[in-house]
Amino acid sequence: MALVSHALGLRWTYALLTRTTPILGTAYTIAVWSIHGPFDIVSWEDIAAEMRTHVPPPGTPILIGADWNSIPDPLLDPLTGSPTAIPWSTPAAAIAPTATVDLFRLLRPDDVSWTFARTTTRPDGSSHVSARRLDSIWGSPDLLPLFQDTSVVSTSSDHRAVGVSFANPFSATPLTAASGAITPYRPWSLHPGLWNEPLFISALDHFAPTLPLPRPRSTVNREPDTTWTALEQSRTP
Known about the structure:
This is Endonuclease/exonuclease/phosphatase domain-containing protein. By secondary structure, this protein is of the alpha+beta class. The chain has two domains: about 1-165, 4-Layer Sandwich (Deoxyribonuclease I, Chain A), CATH 3.60.10; about 175-235, no CATH class. Helices cover about 20% and strands about 25% of the residues. It is built from five helices and ten strands. Strands 1-2-3-4-8-5 form a six-stranded mixed sheet. Strands 6-7 form a two-stranded antiparallel ribbon. Helix 1 runs parallel beside helix 2 (about 90-95).
């Protein structure tokens, strides 16, 4: 897949991607937006201006993945019915030129789903739980015949990750490292929050000894950051 054009700001990224074989359905080109919703109207107006500027060629499908910090449905998307600081009318106006639709709500018109939750403890010891569907993926109507499912999974972030799946009868043959098309050593990083996940630490401790590390293979009683450093070194050409 090749990058035709791109642009980015403090809270948004745009990319126009193309491939010699269809990406989704019969589309050889697709436009992708990533948005981290700001908490002020002026910043949303800036995003709206960028979306009017970066318009893909006619007929190009668009996908928008975002932490909106706002909720489309005031009845279904919050747990307690409390509004967000930014009303949905603001991001809705920004993305209106794309004519995209909420894929989760399209498939599950009456369901509730939380992508962010918080428990606040009051001075008297009582607690208050709030939860909202702040994160969602929107897509062009042209993609709807291919749209199959949507998912929400927990991650090491304070937000849950949202995903969508499409049926793609024209998908290309997967690339393999043997073909030379995929570089064996590509940039990668570890989310800091994973150090708070016991399952990840356990999996890392069991996996690291199987690698040709430049130090003793045993990771028993080794600090997590030392284990990770050894794992990184093993992937350095």
